[in-house]
Design brief:
By secondary structure, this protein is α/β, with parallel strands linked by helices. About 35% of the residues lie in helices and about 25% in strands.
């Protein structure tokens, strides 16, 4: 039996690592359980809006991020059918903090988790949380490591669930498994080199049965990520029986989007396609007193707005701001319910508008009739792309002062 820690964090991605770094630096004893070995790829658009730059600076990793990340994203766009439209990205702040940038998850996640370890967090990797129960005033987590063929128990005063939403499991913070549905969304991602996409442009891709995006990431790579409905994916795979799922989806996108065909003409794919799903947009119920949810475990917007990393890191900040402020009461076993309610209120205020906006945009993109109507309107008024980026949270700053 291990000594009780103040906080156990399940998941070492952007949300979990941000929480671990903040709490460890504030003097908490922190343990992080992460099932994957870093660096590792992840299905993700990789874009971080400029709203995160003050937070990255507060975390002490802004300089490293800016050295590694791709060019500043100053334009949004739309590639659909034969149409390629451009508009300005809404500006956020001034100087180097005005524009967002993209960084591969294998580099971003490693940067943040190493920062948490340097701040004093104890990282268990690769370990998985397979059970969680309450004993007295503590939580007891059953953890296992297949590589080491070991099982251990970890005691903690509080638990922060940052394990995402794509996998079901036995933890009280995990989603229940549900029956497959035709409208389930599956995500795909790959990197390309020698791509003709204009630097500083992040276009939205709209194609039958799905949507996606492209952006210049680190080391001269362009990231292409997308979501596609289950029923459309099945049709696409039947149309390309000899191709992998990722290549079949890409052929489907290129067949419908001239902008993608032109951007990838002469490009070469780096490594294999990544896939994940089904994706579960929407808000989640809170897991209960003493268990706090951040990132996709708490809720996620449709990836059409490219706010997943932002919501993960910013939700961790909102939670840790409250935990640090009430540390004495929290570690004594009190105020957990009150902090949970306060955090839930702040979470809804910050992220509900993004979730609603993303749901609207996804609804328009995924239905042929509405997609055609929206394309007609946007061709006449391209500045609607700028407005859409603003509605999705690209210019919404959060406080970065732990009180």
């Amino acid at each position: 039996m291990n000594k009780t820690c103040d906080a156990l964090i399940i998941g070492g991605g952007p949300g979990g690592a941000t929480a671990a770094l903040l709490l460890a630096r504030a003097g908490w004893s922190v343990r992080v359980i992460e099932k994957a070995i870093f660096p590792r790829g992840k299905v993700c658009g990789e874009f971080l809006s400029a709203t995160n730059l003050p937070l990255l600076r507060e975390l002490g990793v802004a300089e490293a991020f800016q050295e590694l990340a791709g060019p500043e994203v100053r334009q949004v766009g739309l590639f659909a059918r034969e149409v390629s439209l451009l508009a300005a990205m809404p500006r956020c702040g001034h100087g180097s903090d005005a524009w967002g940038r993209a960084l591969g998850r294998e580099r971003l996640d490693t940067l943040l988790l190493e920062g948490a370890a340097a701040a004093g967090a104890e990282v268990w990797q690769p370990w998985s949380a397979i059970g969680l129960s309450r004993e007295g005033g503590d939580f007891v987590c059953q953890a296992s490591s297949r590589e080491r063929r070991q099982s251990r128990e970890i005691r903690a005063r509080i638990v922060i669930a940052a394990h995402g939403s794509w996998e079901s499991g036995s933890l009280p913070s995990q989603c229940l498994r549900r029956a497959p549905r035709p409208g389930d969304l599956f995500g795909f991602k790959a990197h390309f080199r020698n791509c003709g996409l204009r630097p500083g442009l992040m276009p939205l891709l709209v194609f039958p049965g799905g949507y996606g995006g492209m952006v210049h990431s680190d080391h001269g790579r362009v990231s292409l990520s997308c979501c596609i409905r289950r029923d459309r994916l099945e049709q696409v795979r039947r149309a390309h029986p000899r191709a992998s799922a990722g290549e079949a989806v890409l052929a489907h996108i290129q067949g419908d989007c001239r902008g993608v065909r032109e951007a990838l003409s002469g490009a070469t794919r780096e490594q294999s396609w990544l896939s994940a799903g089904p994706i579960r947009p929407g808000s989640r119920q809170r897991a209960g007193a003493g268990i706090f949810l951040v990132g996709n475990a708490a809720g996620e917007a449709h990836p059409i707005v490219a706010e997943g990393i932002s919501m993960a890191m910013q939700s961790a900040w909102l939670l840790c701001e409250r935990l640090v402020r009430g540390r004495a009461e929290v570690l004594a076993g009190g105020e957990l319910a009150a902090i949970g309610r306060d955090y839930a209120t702040a979470w809804r205020k910050q992220f509900a508008p993004r979730i609603y906006a993303a749901a609207l945009f996804a609804h328009l993109a995924l239905r042929p009739a509405t997609a055609a109507a929206a394309l007609t309107i946007i061709r006449r008024f391209p500045h609607l792309l700028t407005m859409g980026a603003r509605w999705s949270g690209k210019a919404n700053q959060i406080s970065t002062t732990l009180r």
